[in-house]
Amino acid sequence: MAFRYGTERLTVEKVFALVRGELQGVLDEEARGRLDRSRETVERLAASRKAVYGVNTGFGPLVDVKVSPEETSRLQENLLMTHAVGVGEPIAAELSKIMMVCKVHALAQGYSGIRREVVERILYFLGHDLVPVVPSQGSVGASGDLAPLAHLFLPLLGRGYFFEEGRVVPAGKVLARHGLEPLRLHAKEGLALINGTQFILAHAVAGLERMAWLLDLADLAGAMSLEGFEGSASPFREELHAIRPYRGTQESAAHMRQLLEGSGIIASHRNCGRVQDPYSLRCIPQVHGASRNAWYHLRELVETELNSVTDNPVILDTDEAVSGGNFHGEPLALALDYAALAAAELGNISDRRCYLLLEGKFGLPRLLTRNGGLNSGYMIPQYTTAALVSENKVLCTPASADSIPTSLGQEDLVSMGAYSARKFLQVLNNVEKILAIELMYAAQAIDFRRPLHSSAIIEENYRIIRKEVPRLEDDRPLKEDIDKMIRLVRERKLIVR
Predict the structure, then answer these.
(1) pLDDT mean over 155-180
(2) Chain centre distance of CA 145
(3) Which of 492, 476, 460, 285 shows the shortest CA–CA distance to 369?
(4) 53 catalytic, yes or no?
(5) Tens digit of pLDDT for each residue in 237-282?
(6) Dihedral sign, Cα of residue 52, residue 57, residue 59, residue 65
(7) Spatial separation of the C-alpha atoms in residues 238 and 257, rounded to whole Å
(8) What domains lie within the chain, and their CATH numbers?
(9) pLDDT tier at 62 (50, 70, 90 boundaries)?
(10) Which residue of the set 5, 53, 124, 161 is catalytic?
């Protein structure tokens, strides 16, 4: 099965299928025709006396400097070399591949004036797992992700670097081994390659996929903690959420009902004298559901961006090159800051449930150990969740609230969306660890409810956890247990549906 770049609609799922080789991407005749027509327009504009930004002029504040037709190739190649100024650790290879998939799809729509050969070379990179090295820092998310995209496409010129078996290798050597000559860029092509939001977008795509899993995992952790605490399932009733019908809330409530169905622990205390549970249990649908709503909003915007043209200038069918601001990262920057906050809240409520299980209420021993005093039990892992929650609070400071002018004031309001995107993934990393610790606590709490059983799905997850982490009787080093729990979460070994 093949995906037709520039012709079909791209989705988050299709991006991952293309990146992981489960789906082959091609340029069909329709996309080739659009590329060729757009290229013809650029060549006419480059040969004319009319000043067209980025085609026969300088860039940014140098827009008033005209460039001769003989110098256009050097102009475009200089653009990539001078803009490749990123610093910091490289982004993950998968993110670089997502960037290439997103860029090919944008270019193949035929509004960028780039030659078909350039797009086909990027497809060759994807098809042969030639992944450029892209530093993580350096984009302000406005004239596109200029620095990251320049690093991504320097290997087209035989410059820059590729990942190869865990090493960083000069691109020229890799191209030579594949029998490829470096490309020469023509008018507008360098600009078409580096103008765009593909760095921000790649992080958003990756974050969406990870957050979807963590939303379901947070419900599972909440349900297991509720069982360990002997909490009530009545706050998840369908009719309660029908009268405040947020989509995310209703989905979380329904998921909680599914996770708790058939629980003997729930049945055992149905007529107890307790009236209400603390918010971290009772308000799971409202809190987790609000995070789901933010996820849905981000997904809507990301799929719009996946199928958009974020170049400048844009080559229209009317033989015009229109300078605009489609490269600006603000639409995603704001949503990514919001999504980071939504993800962090999953960690906040999880930490509160961890604390709740340690208090020694309703039949649970303090610190989840029968032998307190000599043993500290599970006291200290909650310090770790508290530290991670605090770190997330700092990471939730919105990057998009800031703007530092660049390009001698030509780019006077920037989105800072690249950092919005990067810290979204940092928050998700921390939430994984927090939920892993809560699941470890919840399994220990359920041990104290035996011989009562939970629901079938919770019992299966309990068995998965206990295969890796035994019940805590007396104090032992817990770092290894925590690492095993984090691995279960990251490798998605738990059953959430």
Answers:
(1) 96
(2) 16
(3) 476
(4) yes
(5) 999 999 999 999 999 999 999 999 999 999 998 877 677 999 999 9
(6) negative
(7) 9
(8) 2-196 (1.10.275.10), 203-490 (1.20.200.10)
(9) low
(10) 53
